[in-house]
UniProtKB/TrEMBL annotation:
<feature type="coiled-coil region">
    <location>
        <begin position="195"/>
        <end position="255"/>
    </location>
</feature>
<dbReference type="Pfam" id="PF01145">
    <property type="entry name" value="Band_7"/>
</dbReference>
<dbReference type="InterPro" id="IPR036013">
    <property type="entry name" value="Band_7/SPFH_dom_sf"/>
</dbReference>
<feature type="domain" description="Band 7">
    <location>
        <begin position="43"/>
        <end position="215"/>
    </location>
</feature>
<keyword id="KW-0812">Transmembrane</keyword>
<protein>
    <recommendedName>
        <fullName>Band 7 domain-containing protein</fullName>
    </recommendedName>
</protein>
<dbReference type="InterPro" id="IPR001107">
    <property type="entry name" value="Band_7"/>
</dbReference>
<keyword id="KW-0175">Coiled coil</keyword>
<keyword id="KW-0472">Membrane</keyword>
<keyword id="KW-1133">Transmembrane helix</keyword>
<feature type="transmembrane region" description="Helical">
    <location>
        <begin position="19"/>
        <end position="38"/>
    </location>
</feature>
Length: 329
């Protein structure tokens, strides 16, 4: 080291002051050029696009730069935006629907700045972060506007129509901010808990009605079958009752006819007893005759209490002939 310093001192002592100044100037020029080159070259990634901004002159170029190594004025910087669609989320947005019911939902969208309007966007919003803040407000306003056009029931029944309306309104608002949208996703629509319970109860009732309507033809067939069975059973019972009634009627008529014939014969027999052509009984004799018949028809012993006559032999007694027997003349 001491040797190299000594050699340098010897060389410089031999060089003229002008040569030394030129050497120093050359070294400084090379250093300045290297510094300027280093500060004048920037690289953009594949997913980036940017505009060159000169910090010294405060001037923003018009044409966007894409991926690769770019040369610009010394000390310049890139104001970078994504060159691919980015996802913007709106979580837990609470809005009032057409019925005045609070709805909470999550919405997400994919957006990208319009490249031909990058300079305008940078002048209005400074950078990508500034654009995202404004897009947050614009998207929230679009969601509120779309919510006000739907009833509570339509959030469930016309969910796709609601998503399309949100996309239309958001595209209009984002386009005014020089931003494109590719798609919209609406997720996790939440309604008030009491309303959710009412909706679930309504859905259960609707399902029960649907099941009842589906079961109605089957139940009607079963009911008609039971009615037909009941009618058949009643007809059978009625026919049995009619048949039994006819049999009873015939039996009653036969019994009545037999009884009538019996009494007719009995009347003829009694008439024969009283008639002059027959036994010609008197009334007292007829009563004695009837008493004897009654007593003889008894199956049990008959006890009769009567006073003993003073002269039993004085009682006239006449043995009546058997019934239905005509006395000989």
């Amino acid at each position: 080291m001491a040797f190299s310093i000594t050699a340098f001192q010897v060389r410089t002592s031999r060089m003229s002051p002008k040569a030394i100044a030129l050497c120093i100037g050359a070294v400084m020029a090379v250093a300045i050029i290297a510094t300027l080159l280093a500060t004048s070259m920037k690289k953009l990634q594949t997913y980036e696009v940017g505009l060159i901004y000169n910090k010294i002159t405060k001037r923003l170029q018009d044409n966007p730069k894409f991926e690769g190594l770019h040369l610009g004025p010394p000390g310049f910087t890139f104001i970078i935006f994504p060159n691919v669609y980015q996802t913007k989320t709106f979580n837990g947005i609470m809005c009032l629907n057409q019925n005045g019911v609070r709805i909470i939902l999550d919405v997400s969208c994919q957006f990208k700045v319009q490249l031909h309007s990058m300079k305008k966007v940078i002048k209005e919003f400074k950078d990508f972060d500034g654009l995202k803040r404004v897009l947050q407000y614009a998207g929230t306003a679009a969601i509120h506007e779309a919510c006000s056009n739907f009833t509570t029931a339509e959030f469930q029944e016309r969910r796709e129509a609601f998503r399309k309306l949100v996309q239309e309104i958001m595209e209009f608002r984002f386009n005014a901010l020089n931003t494109d949208i590719s798609s919209i996703q609406v997720n996790n629509i939440r309604r008030p808990q009491p309303y959710e319970k009412a909706i679930r109860a309504k859905e259960r009732a609707r399902e029960d009605i649907l099941v009842a309507r589906q079961e109605q033809p089957k139940q009607l067939i079963e009911a008609e079958t039971k009615v037909k069975e009941a009618i058949a059973i009643s007809n059978i019972t009625l026919e049995k009752a009619k048949s039994r009634a006819r049999i009873k009627k015939k039996q009653a008529e036969s019994e009545a006819s037999a009884i009538l014939i019996q009494y007719q014969k009995e009347a003829e027999s009694l008439q024969n007893v009283l008639s002059p052509e027959g036994l010609n009984y008197t009334n007292d004799e007829f009563l004695q005759y009837m008493a004897i018949r009654i007593i003889s028809s008894l199956n049990n012993t008959l006890y009769v209490g009567m006073n003993f006559p003073e002269n039993p032999y004085s009682i006239p007694f006449r043995r009546p002939p058997p019934p239905n027997v005509t006395p000989k003349k």
